[in-house]
Structure formats: C-alpha cells, structure tokens
User: What shape does this take?
Amino acid sequence: MKKSVALPLFFAACQSAPMPNAEHHHHHDHGGMPHRFENAEEWAKQFDDPSRDAWQKPDEVVTLLRLQPGMVVADIGAGTGYFEGRLSKAVGDTGRVWAMDVEADMVRYLGERAQKEGWKNLEAKQVAPDDPGLAPNSVDRILIVDTWHHLGDRDAYAQKLAAALKPGGEIHVVDFNKDSPRGPPAEMKLAPEELQATLQKAGLQSELASETLPDQYVVIAKKAG
Ligand SMILES: C[S@@+](CC[C@H](N)C(=O)[O-])C[C@H]1O[C@@H](n2cnc3c(N)ncnc32)[C@H](O)[C@@H]1O
Assistant: This one.
C-alpha cells in the first residue's frame, strides 16, 4: 500500500497487493481469494483508520452478537484487531476472546496490541488457512469480518466452524454487498444467499440480520440449542 494512494475504496489493496508466493493459482482452484497480509503496521493504517467506523459500524456489528460477560468469542481473520477492544470489553474478565489469523505478523501485532491496550482476556493465535483452530463445542460466538471471501473450501470450513460452536452458539459473517464500491473485486464478492446455503449445509440455521451497514450484509448462523 503506497502512502500516496488515496483510498476511496476500502481494502483497495485487496486488488493490487503483490502476491509474494505461488499460492495464488492453487487457491483459486477451489474458489477462495488468496491474499497475503504481511506487515501488520502497514495494514493497521487501513484496517484501523478511524474513518472506517462510519461505514463498518463496529458498535452495531458487536451489538448484533449479543455478547454477555463470561462468553467465549472467536474472531476469525482478526487482522490488526479493529474489533478486539469491543469484543474484549463485552465478554469481560470471565470471558475469552480468541483472535485468529493466518498471518504470523498479524498474530504478533495482535499480541503486542493486546498487551498495550490491556485486553487480558484475549489470546491471539496463528491458524491454518483451512482450519479455524477452535476446539469442538467451545465457543459462543464466531465473528468473521471481511474474510470469508478469502477462504478456500468453504463447505469444509463451515463444518469446522459448526463443530466449534456450543449448542445455541452463533456465527456472524460480515462481508461486502456485490454492488458496494468497497471490498474485493466484484467477482470475488459473495451473495449472502450463497453464504447462507453453505452454513445451512453445515447443519446451522441461518438468517440475514436486519442492520444499517451501508456496504455490507451480516449473515447469522445458529447451532441448535
Ligand atoms: C481484510 S482483513 C480483515 C481483518 C479484520 N477482520 C477487520 O475487519 O479489520 C482479512 C484478514 O483475514 C486473514 N485471513 C485470510 N484468510 C484467512 C483464513 N483462512 N483464516 C484466518 N484468517 C485469514 C488475513 O490475514 C487478514 O488479516
């Protein structure tokens, strides 16, 4: 991301960042959008840009999760921790936040940020691209923001997420509307119906949340209680 580039498109870098390894074609074979997110400090300028709040509406996204003190919440593709302060506060001292990312540098940054900000209930963990790294029946909520379109075998991934939920637990996936000027290129954007079908195949009940995000939808999938 060059500093001089104006950013009318959020995550414009998703379209233009160099791919330093040869995973590109391999990942495209099964539908995911590969993308490396190295150098967390650079990404933080974009992910944690205060102007993002106006359209990302993080308070609204977190309110939809209906977190309670003591809950366990996982953020998959946590990035530089844009949501983590809110999640950490909502589940409190007796709760736990798992901040998962595939990129070692994001995990390093998340850990340092947690220390600095005093998010004592948060643990950052590096995960494999095809596995959320969560124990079965262990989490109350899973949040996945602007990350689903990076996943490869989404059916298999959804099965693993479903297994990780406690009974009554929920997955909330936030991603870009097809016609949004923000986000990945249009052909990588995913209709919410497609996402819902994937989550239903994994045995979850899904619904489209009612919200006021201008560029995105929120799909909620619930495990029977
Ligand atoms: C566009 S960023 C979004 C970060 C954060 N959710 C936010 O809203 O600011 C996508 C993040 O997902 C991570 N990621 C991509 N594929 C992943 C996967 N299969 N599992 C976990 N994290 C992944 C990337 O490294 C990156 O940090």
Q: What stands out?
A: The longest strand covers residues 165-176. The domain at 20-222 is CATH 3.40.50.150 (Rossmann fold). The chain has a mean pLDDT of 88.
